[in-house]
Amino acid sequence: MPSYYLPFSQSTEYLISPFSVEVILALTRAGAKGKTASEFSTGVDLPSEEVTEEALKLFLPLLKSSNENLRLTTANKLYINSNFSILDSYKKLAVSTYDAATENVDFTKTTETANRINQWVEERTNNKIQNLVKPESLDDVQLVLINALHFKGKWSNPFVPSVTKSDFYVSATERTTVDMMFTEDTFKYAESADLDAKFIELPYEGGNVSMTVVLPNKVEGLAALERNLQAVFQPQNYQELYVSVKLPTFLTETELNLTPLLKNLGLATIFSESADLSGIASEPLMVSEVLQKAFINVTTTGTEAAATTALHIEVESLPLPAEYFFIADRPFFYYIRTGDVVLVTGRVSSN
User: Fold this and answer.
1) Could you give the CA distance from residue 75 to residue 124 in angstroms, rounded to a whole number?
2) What start and end residues bound the annotated signal peptide (predicted)?
């Protein structure tokens, strides 16, 4: 599992879209050659190019679902400097495999072009992601690759509309007050002795999308869980059980520069003058930075989440007593997935 699933800090809220990162990296890898290309496998553990492209051809059309209860959309776009040419073969691949739109822009007009890119991002993320690209970041840039993801879903098992003020234990010696949601219903629930944690799957209406909340049994047990995320993401021994659930409402917004992390993982050549991106253009190219902004809002009715990654190149409850309790009154880890694809993952450590 790539390390960008992991939080950067133990003390802050954290949110990232692994899916958005992987789409942008795959789109870049499609134009890489030699050592530059091999680092995508050895460094960030991307599947082979053939496997990735076949999976995306099947999966991306599914990420255009929309109904009154669930909206899940993704979009890719290439912004190309008006005096710069990318290879026809790369443009065709971007369109056919990644469903990417292309647009020629004048990167010398940095403010105008940044506004143009940001407007597209805002439109694709229901205005949740704003000002992704700064004008000063477009100096000497020839190509910008963008992936935008937006998700909005209603809980299949809604929480009680009102919230209560409850204690949330930030640590063994510190606590704060949060707005706590409550529901009782039948959920997929699991307990892991090895991970010393509880799991619950909270489904959304209208599609194969759910949020999994992973709650350590100890107040200060989250760090140990995050050191073992490979096991956290493995299938758990779920049972359909009637569970009393308390979960805080939370809103998280993050802006991450993924460049240092990707370099540390071994994806270094693309950021240097030794980069071989000759599958994109005949002129020498290198990546200047990889950025992501992400947003999530979890309430009693459901969840809204959005993420954008930019790469610059140059029902009623059953009347039963609950026997199982899932009380998220301490730091926890969560992820939203559809099938085997992790859309967003994050941590709530305070509120």
Assistant:
1) 7
2) none
Task: Give CA–CA dist 239/198, Å, rounded.
Answer: 12
The two tokens of residue 12 are 């802050």
Strand, coil or helix: 194: coil
147 and 159 co-located in one domain = no
Q: What are phi and psi of 39, to 5 degrees?
A: -65, -20
Under 8 Å between Cβ of 251 and 296: yes
Would you say residue 2 lies in a domain? no
Mark whether 40 and 174 lie in a shared domain: no
Q: 118 and 130 share a domain?
A: yes
Site of tokens 């809604």:
158
Residue 194 sits in a domain whose CATH number is: 2.30.39.10
- Does residue 199 belong to any structural domain of this protein? yes
Give 88-143 pLDDT, tens digit per residue. 999 998 888 888 888 999 989 999 999 999 999 999 888 888 888 899 988 888 88
Domain enclosing residue 320, as ranges:
155-249+313-348
C-alpha 114/C-alpha 68 separation (Å) is 32
Candidates 115, 14, 44, 32; CA nearest to 262 is: 44
State the pTM of this model. 0.87
Instruction: Determine, yes or no, domain membership for 46.
Output: yes
